[in-house]
Amino acid sequence: MKNLCEPVAVRQISSLFLTGNIPQFSGKGHWHIVLRRRKRAAQPEYLPGRFLLLFPDAASAGREEETEKKLHKETKEMDQKKNNKVTLLLIVLCVVALAVAALFATGVIGGKNAAPDTAAVVKNGDVVGKGAVQFPFVIVDKEGNETAVTVKTDKKTVGEALLDEKIVEGDMGDYGLYVKKVNGIVADYDADQTYWAFYIDGAYAMTGVDVTEIVEGSTYMMKVEK
Known about the structure:
By secondary structure, the chain is of the alpha+beta class. It is 27% helix and 30% strand. It is built from three helices and 13 strands; from the N terminus they run ββββαβββαβββαβββ. The strands form three sheets. A six-stranded mixed beta sheet has the order 5-7-6-13-11-12. The chain has a four-stranded antiparallel beta sheet with strand order 1-4-3-2. A hairpin with a 2-residue loop joins β11 (195-200) and β12. The protein is rod-shaped, with a radius of gyration of 46 Å. It starts with 8 loop residues before the first strand and ends with a strand.
């Protein structure tokens, strides 16, 4: 039998006896089977341990080559579509990640959004208010910058005097006035774990600013702490 092209596979016979004419069988195209026979056998006999050399006929080889090219093209197109989907997914994830990071940065996610700082009510050295009693008041911001002013008032407590001049702002709660803003600077523990600490003559006050009575000669201070 004439070989039409190079052998494409070699198979070992494991438990097969073939006699008579050399057969053909169909798989992917038709294969001619060339088997090495034992010379001493009267009829072609093929025992385990022998090898099959498989040759495709010319027509099948052409069809297989065409089919292989078609499959290769389809596989390439599918891979390209898959890569496009992956690229689009990565772009979407990047956009979402940037959006989430922006929300965290602005405080919308991860905590209550803090109110922004506003323009200062007083500046260093100012004397504000009117009244028979006066006291020094010092404001220390997040960076440690101090603003010292003198407050004149007829109010009885430090908190009343500061609220009257709109130097401080806050909310009334179960424990009195919760100061959130002093001279336009926000410190809100619910938003960023900062708060306004109240000091009397350099010592941490044991009473709230709204119930601390004014004592002439004493210096009152509010400082951002964390």
